[in-house]
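Running log. JK asked me to keep both predictions on one page so they can be read side by side. First protein, sequence followed by its tokens:
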Amino acid sequence: MSRLRLRAPSWGHLAFIGAAAAFLIWYFLDAYGASSRLENLMLIAPATAIGLGLCLFLAAAEFVTVEGAAPRTALPAVDPRVPLFMALLAAYVAALVYDLGFDVASFLFLAASLWVLGERRPTLLVVFPAVFTVLIVLGMQELLSIPVPTLLFDDM
């Protein structure tokens, strides 16, 4: 049976976690100082809370190890899909910059990402990106009141 045991932490990891937590706190306080309205903090406050919770979890994990666990093996080779996905993300940002529209760019990015990650069913490659695109465009425009440039959904 494996048990948890205390160990010496990696101070570099702890410093990085501390820097991330400090950034999260600074960003929240800066946003709160700019405007304490719900619309401004609706996404920032929960993201900050989740981020700080993860920082606490990771910091605590630095001090314990599992006794009897298998030793760490070498890192696997880079998955060839990772560079493809990075290129897709760059193309998505470029499409947004060059006015393809948030809706069309999001649909194409989601469909291509699903394909790169192994999805081959045509129905899913069309339906999921279409539904998700409509939801995020409506969410950005109606719930957050953020005007996003769209190509197909100008009347939404």
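And the second, directly underneath as requested:
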Amino acid sequence: MYANGYKYWLAYRKGYSGYYRCARYKVNCPGRCMVSDDGSTQTSTPHNHPPETDRVAVDRFRKILTRRAATEGTDLHEIYLEEATRSGGHAEAALLYTFVQAESCMRKARRKLLPMEPSGMAELGDILEGSDLFRIHCGNSRDAFYQTAVRAEGEMALVLWHKRTLGAVGRIDTLFLDSSLVVCANGSSKYHILMGVTAWQDKCVPVIYSVMSAKTFAIFARIFSYIREQLHTITLILTEPCSVIHSALAVNFPEATIKVYWFHYVTAVLDHHNGISMVAGTADGFTNSALRMLLVLPLLPAEHMNSAFEALKSWMDRKHILSANLRNICDYVNSHWLTTVGSERLSLFDHTRGTTSTPNDFLQKFRDENDFQKQSLWQLLETWTQLATKQYVIINKHIRKMKSSSKSFRTKSKAHLVQEEAIRKATELWREMPENGKDPLLFLQACSHCISNDMLTKRPSKGSSETEMCKHSILSERTIVDQSGSQTDSQHVTTLDIVKTSQSHKSEIAPSREVEPPPLVFFHKLRQVESSGIKTGMFHNQTEPPPLVPFGIENHTLSQIPFSTS
């Protein structure tokens, strides 16, 4: 606020009145004023410096220039001339604050102005093709992030990556793909997200970004064809349990091994278990062991998974733990995974790189930190640009640290090392068994030790893979788009979804707490009156009786103190 040649900052409000302090309070100016409900200003404490009329005028002029620069697309010099030559405007302030001085703050404010939301993917591709938007800052250079646009059967996709990050990572032999996110732009248009990450030095590094107008076999094939031209060293690809993605990958990467990411299976089974038991508690005893052995079922060879599943069910029956809940989980694993997905795509035997939880944790954190239902395409691209820049800086710092220090760095976490050791010992045990006497149940029991308690007690994920299993050619989406009046969607609502919905309604209805005004630190503190007989600070709370320690106790020898013998 500006008044009488001074600049004020709001301290707090009381009723309809506002209390302000001088903007130069940091240089010990005690000036304060009060603005009543009718708008009149009353100075309560005088200032220790004269009015700064010129400074106030320049501040007002600069605020108008930055506001217009951030909200309008007019040329900056034209905005300055309009405000400087306007009658009754800021002619005097323009003499003190020239365009050369104002250009810097106006350009900084102009960066907040994003272009209009594109009408479609084609317009977005044209804008990115001929502009310097969304660049990766690498020292003094600004590297390109957008690479190309691919089209197929009327659909379109944009592919982005940072070439310096790919060069810093080096050879990429394992790629984790995730296409479960959806951006709802303008409230009606839906754009699908494809992200490719790789594990590097026990860290997860995103290397491929793509936004698609639709998820079809043709568009996936074009994207993977372009990726293969740049990354031809990939030997293992882990992705979602979707036949469309697997078919497109098989066409473009015929020599690579394409499997379902283990944590998609683990998350889906645990979500189903928590949905049945309504999170009543963690299973214990043989029930806990049975659940662990179900989770490590994909770590067996594909030809032994069905026999191991039947042997596990027989073991549950012998232990008298095959309850209705466990039977329901077994039916779910058999119908949605062993039958629909298939043991060949599900088996990760001899592929321990597919059992790391780093990509799953990274993608889950990325989903939690970004609300894609409320993001526009520009916000999505800005989020990706910041993420790519941050990851490039982290990689460079880690590489410099490795080069400058002779110490050996531990590249894997302790939990990951324990998990790998359990899987390795179980695999060795399986290979030592004779071909005609292999016991899949013994392998499951030995391998189940790689499942930690944190994995079992982890909260259910936001997106379940059950819907993906039921649809062969159409991918499920983690971001649910509301469709009012749809009877088909209402049939698939589970009890767990009802509980989550009721909890979200409660959080929306809960009233927000009012933020109290800041304390009056600039007012003079009142000096506390100390009593003559008691020192200040002796008692922590004056409403409670004082402790007995202040009373004087005479020194007595041990023989003079009487002891009670009763």
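Observation for JK regarding the second prediction: The first helix runs from residue 53 to 71.
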